[in-house]
Every structure is written in C-alpha cells, then in structure tokens.
Amino acid sequence: PGARAWIDDDGSGRWAVYQKQDVYAPTTTLTPKTLDAGEAYGSAVAMGADQQVALVGSPRLGFATGTAHGGVYTYVKNSVGSYQPISPTGSTDAIIAPLITGMRALGSCVNVGNLDWALAGAPLSLSGTGLSDAGYAMIVYRDITSYQLGQNFIW
Fold first, then answer.
1. Strand, coil or helix: what is 64?
2. Sign (positive/negative) of CA torsion 56, 60, 64, 67?
3. Residues with Cβ < 8 Å from 88, sequence gap 6 or more?
4. What angle do CA 152, 116, 98 make, to 5 degrees?
5. Over pLDDT 70: what percentage of the chain?
6. For a Cys-Cys bond, which of 22, 70, 73, 102 suits 107, CB 3.0-4.6 Å?
C-alpha cells in the first residue's frame, strides 16, 4: 500500500492506475556479539544461493588498535532458521580477519558464489612495495560436502 501513479497510456492505449507495493519484508537482523561502533559493520552484505550462509563486511575492523585491516563476519543458518556466527563455540563472533602486512579495509565488498566459494575485497591495501590503494582480494572456499544444516563449520 502506498502512492498511486496514473498512467495515460499503458502500452495498449488505455489509462491505468498503479499502486506502490511493499515487495520486501525484513525477516532477520544480523548483529555481532561484540562490535566497535566505528568499524563500519554492514558496509557490504552477501548471502549464498541456498540462503544458508551470510557474510557481512566490516572494513574498519581493527581501527581502534591503529590499523583498519578490516574483516568479514560469517554467519550460517541454524536448524530453526536463524543466523548464528560460524564459530566453533557459537557464542563468539566468527570473523575472517587475517593480519596480512599491508592489508587494509577487508570487507569493503563481499560476494558468495553459489554454495561453496566467497570473495572479499580490500581495496585500500598496500602493494608489496608499499604503494597505497593497490587492492587485495581474498578467495575463500567452504567444503559443503561435510556441512550439515544447523551445525557450525569453518571457512
């Protein structure tokens, strides 16, 4: 329900009235267990084709310690349909955040390819010779053959 638009020619020479519809409805909220307000959590979000895994970019993760290496929070859908961190304990955040020299802003972009591959970008990374904004891309593989719905797994 929403605004209406009157169209004087709907393609067949007739008047038409169209009403805006809400086609999306929020179903869940992904919230980390611990979060530093300045880490830009949610800058990029991706979900697997089967909706069993979600990735949330946080490109300023680590800024409080001096360098925003960035990171990607990882979630899996459990047996009741809620998303939980992909953590061995389930009670902590699961974050892909390798401390690679020169890596900056990991999680600025994320994507999940079908069911078992993911990609995270770090566009502000330094090159091997120290040039700024050289970029870095991290490819992650998830072995779906050992995954069972509702159980944690490691990327």
1. helix
2. positive
3. 152, 154
4. 70
5. 86
6. 70
Type of residue numbered 28: T
- Going by pLDDT thresholds of 50, 70 and 90, the confidence category of residue 155 is very low
Tokens of 79: 């047996």
Q: Which residue shows structure tokens 């899996």?
A: 76
3-state secondary structure of 141: strand
For residue 144, which phi and psi values (nearest 5 degrees)?
-80, -10
- What single-letter DSSP state applies at residue 92? S
The pTM assigned to this predicted structure is: 0.75
pLDDT, tens digit (0-9, with 9 covering 90-100), for 62-104: 888 888 899 999 888 888 888 888 766 667 888 888 888 888 9
